[in-house]
């Protein structure tokens, strides 16, 4: 049995997760890399360069996760609309 309210709540939660995840993904990678460079100095330049690449990849993955959450929210929203219209059509054919 489908409970439309639960599907709507799931969609709203997914949308909120997408927004929050997107905000985290918007962090300034250059500022973070500069902080790492300042901590490790000249001796840690190779580490800092590797860190910058890893951090950029990580932030891209966070962006993809935010998109996935947003897509889940959209799918839940369209699914509940489809279900509700199908349920209403089915109910109209039932006579009591």
Describe what this molecule looks like in 3D:
The protein has 96 residues and is an all-alpha fold. It has one domain. The protein is built from three helices and no strands. It has helices at residues 4-25, 29-40, 45-92. Helix 1 (4-25) runs antiparallel to helix 3 (45-92) and helix 2 (29-40) packs antiparallel against helix 3 (45-92). The model has no long low-confidence stretch (mean pLDDT 88).
Radius of gyration of CA atoms, rounded to a whole number: 22 Å
Largest sheet: none
Shape: rod-shaped
Domains (count):
1
Structural class: mainly alpha
Query: Treating each run of at least 4 consecutive H or I residues as one helix, how many helices?
Result: 3
Low-confidence stretches: none
End-to-end CA span = 21 Å
Number of DSSP-assigned strands: 0
β-sheet strand percentage: under 5%
- Percentage of helical residues? over 70%
Q: What is the mean pLDDT?
A: 88
In N-to-C order, the SSE pattern is: HHH
Concise synopsis of the structure shown:
The protein has one domain.
Based on the model shown, name its key terms.
about 100 residues; mainly alpha
Question: How is the secondary structure organized here?
Answer:
Layout lengths: L3 H22 L3 H12 L4 H48 L4
